[in-house]
Design brief:
The protein has about 180 residues and is mainly α. The protein has a domain of about 60 residues: PGBD-like superfamily/PGBD (Muramoyl-pentapeptide Carboxypeptidase, domain 1), CATH 1.10.101. Helices cover about 45% and strands about 0% of the residues. It is built from seven helices and no strands.
Length: about 180
């Protein structure tokens, strides 16, 4: 262990030593700069009063910001009950086909198919589909009961006009749209 040097020990800053001859607040009042930096000594009443308006402004601005945030969330419906009003459902309007051979007003649509079909199918249901599409003004080529490329193209055109996915397959949604379109 190193020997203690009594002269050097006097140079050390002993935080726990009592200030000799003066009380600590009086010593701090002598040096105002050190009084502001010392967090152990309570601030003078005048210093507290000077910071009061600044704190008040900060609190008012923070309160206004919180109030605006809550008002915005309330307007957005965040605080509303669990039931929400859904917008009314609308059905897409069906426009007439762009074909130049559009169906005549008052013309009757022949018997509609009762089943779905797809390219490659043949038979009476395909003939009914071809006749119905032809009556609505879609070009299906010859009404031969063959679900070929021309019929597929006519079905896709009808689907597009009805607001459906135009894949050329005569599925349940396309059948429903054809029934609605042909109507009584």
């Amino acid at each position: 262990m190193a020997a203690r040097d009594p002269e050097r020990e006097g140079d050390r800053d002993d935080w726990f030593a009592d200030v000799e001859g003066t009380s600590q607040p009086a010593a701090l009042d002598a040096d105002p700069a050190s009084a502001e930096d010392d967090w152990l000594v309570p601030a003078a009443p005048a210093a507290r009063m000077q910071s009061f308006p600044h704190r008040t402004r900060i609190l008012v601005v923070a309160g206004a910001a919180v109030a605006l945030l809550i008002a915005g969330l309330a307007a957005g419906g965040v605080f509303s009950s669990g039931t929400s009003k859904a917008p009314p459902l609308t059905t897409p309007s069906v426009t007439s086909p762009p074909s130049t051979t559009a169906a005549k007003a008052g013309a009757s649509v022949p018997a509609l198919p009762a089943a779905t079909s797809k390219p490659g199918d043949t038979g009476s249901q395909v003939k009914k589909l071809q006749r119905a599409l032809k009556a609505l003004g879609y070009s299906v080529g010859a009404v031969d009961g063959q679900y070929g490329p021309t019929t597929k193209e006519a079905v896709a055109s009808f689907q597009h006009d009805a607001g459906l996915t135009a894949d050329g397959v005569f599925g349940p949604k396309t059948l429903d749209a054809l029934i609605r379109r042909a109507g009584p």
